[in-house]
Amino acid sequence: YILPTQENLDSITRELRKKKKRKQEKKKVEKKEETKEAPEARTRFNTVALHKSSRRNAIRAYVHSDQVVMAGSTLKMRLGEDCLTDDGRRVRKDSPVYGEVRKIDGERVIVEIRTVNVGGNILPFKKEVYSSDAMEGIYVPGNAKAEINKDATAGAVDGTNPQITGGLDMGSQLIAGGVNGVVNATKQAASKNIKKVKVTIKTNYAVFLMEKKETGES
Q1: What is the pTM of this model?
Q2: Which tens digit of pLDDT belongs to each residue from 169-204?
Q3: Cβ-based neighbours of 75, under 8 Å, separated by 6 or more
Q4: Distance (Å, rounded) from C-alpha 216 to C-alpha 218?
């Protein structure tokens, strides 16, 4: 049996250290590559998910909180999923979106969205709000106040308007003129009453945002 010399021991030790160092460096490289690939994988996943959701023609959203609205009011909503603006910019889930109440038509609150704020940029986002029943507008069942005001207004506007005709004496003309004034005042009050119709929309009411249909109107 021949004992190894000190020189041989040193050589073996150096070789073992080199192997250990190479192994450690290899692990570092592999770990670095995994870290680099992770965000790319997440990006691919998010892109695929966004493409899948974009195949639908509607975007899920919900009403932000209990809100009392009327024609001309602003309704605050939040997105229920990631989506894209009209010019292709990403809008994150839970981002706020604001729509204008165009009118209250019976049991329907018609809302229109024009733009959205994305990181301080005002971007085009033309959408119409639909309910889960696939009809335009937010459904507010039992909106008796709106129906009553609508019927009253229609009756006032469609009512006959007495006209002053020849052959009447001065007193009759004054009476007829007074009647005309009352009818006109009723019409104006009824027209204003349409705008005063208010409804309450509950928090988390689910809605769908659809691309606004171009009607060709200027």
Answers
A1: 0.57
A2: 555 555 556 556 655 655 565 555 555 799 999 999
A3: 63, 67, 69, 98, 99, 100, 101, 109, 111, 129, 201
A4: 6
